[in-house]
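ingest -> fold -> write
write: protein_1
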Amino acid sequence: MNEKKNSKELESKSPPTGLLPELAEGLGGFRIAFKMQLYKGFEDEYKKRHDALWPDLEQLLKSRGISEYSIFLDETTNSLFGFSYIVL
């Protein structure tokens, strides 16, 4: 069953990249990737906070339509690369 979603529902789940709700509606979902830099000296704190997903964060992600979420640390450069899939 493919129900039509109103634009308010779509706007609340649209990415900050400006994907128009009218264009996103036929997709069923979309992927977002991001890159960040971890400050030197914060590696242990990052690992501690990302070893396990907090239950309240998991609930928040799911409530926003995020069905997949991964983040990776490149230990040679301290670059963080993240990926999420948002279901419309």
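write: protein_2
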Amino acid sequence: MSREADHRLLSVLALIVGFSAFEFLPNGNFNYLVFVLAGALLGCSRSTVLESARRARLNRQQAMTRERISPSTQGPTAVQPLS
């Protein structure tokens, strides 16, 4: 899932939970759907944060690997001929 799709899913779930909780207050009807949607919102938000952290860690590891593999720019680059 792309980041934009993740953000859309989280925003829609947050709106549904918000409207459901607001509607729940004056009527007092007990409905488990609000709690199910709140759990889905929590799970999606946690997975999005963990995926973002995983991507950042992977990018750092790749950058460190590239630095180790690339030749050093310090020192002489040309071979000196023997006289």
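write: annotation protein_2
The two ends are 63 Å apart (CA to CA).
The chain has a mean pLDDT of 79.
pipeline exit 0
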